[in-house]
Amino acid sequence: MKKIFYLMRHGQTLFNKRRKIQGWCDSPLTELGIKQAETAAKYFKANHIVFDHAYCSTSERASDTLEIVTNLPYIRLKGLKEWNFGSFEGESEDLNPSLPYVDFFANYGGEKEKEFQKRVADTCQKIMEEDNEVVLAVSHGAACRKFMQYWEHTSSIRQKERIGNCCILKFEYENEEFKLVEIINHDFSNLSEAIPV
To answer: In this predicted structure, what is the pLDDT of residue 182?
Structure first.
């Protein structure tokens, strides 16, 4: 039986806005990030998508996003956390090396790329091996990208550009395999943060 797995990135955070490297370190959702999560919630409601289980990373930005999207009880999993960027955490994104990062961050106390990718892939597999049929998991940009790449051999659709805040990746899960079937990129052009007085 085909199961459905929605993997979603969290809403915009303060560090996203300030262009800070944010992996295992955390920062709160901005006002725009909250509106982005509300937009995702409206998408699921408008499409009559009902989850039977919900999961997120242990980072507050992920759980805060999930709580806006659904009022379902949820489980926080360390396996859904973002890449550990070591001593680059909280520093300017200008310090990022050019892509692909491979094992750059492992030299500075972070995770090796393949270990990070396997952590996320194994966690998602365990989630779908549970008695779940329609699942929402809120995670992070690089985590979503690495999971997509892990299963790109089963999928015909691709997203080359960066995975934006609250982007939703819809996977089918059958016979222990994930297949990416849809990428939902919301139009946030009509959203804006309130200008402080």
So the answer is: 95
Q: What is the pLDDT of residue 171?
A: 97
**pLDDT digit string, tens, across residues 94-135:** 999 998 899 999 999 999 999 999 999 999 999 999 989 999
In a domain, 195, yes or no: no
* 10 assigned to active site: yes
Q: What pTM was computed for the model?
A: 0.94
The active-site residue, picked from 10, 53, 111, 140, is 10
The per-residue pLDDT for 158 is 79
Range of the domain at 63: 3-184
> Is residue 192 domain-resident?
no
Residue 53 near residue 72 (C-beta atoms within 8 A): yes
What is the number of domains present in the chain? 1
Number of Cβ within a 10 Å radius of residue 128: 20
Choosing from 53, 82, 111, 140, which is the catalytic residue? 82
Within a domain: 136: yes
CATH of the domain at 38: 3.40.50.1240
Q: Within a domain: residue 95?
A: yes
| Residue 12, C-beta contacts closer than 8 angstroms, at least 6 positions apart | 29, 30, 32, 33, 36, 165
Q: Is 133 a catalytic residue?
A: no
Tokens 């009509």 label which residue? 190
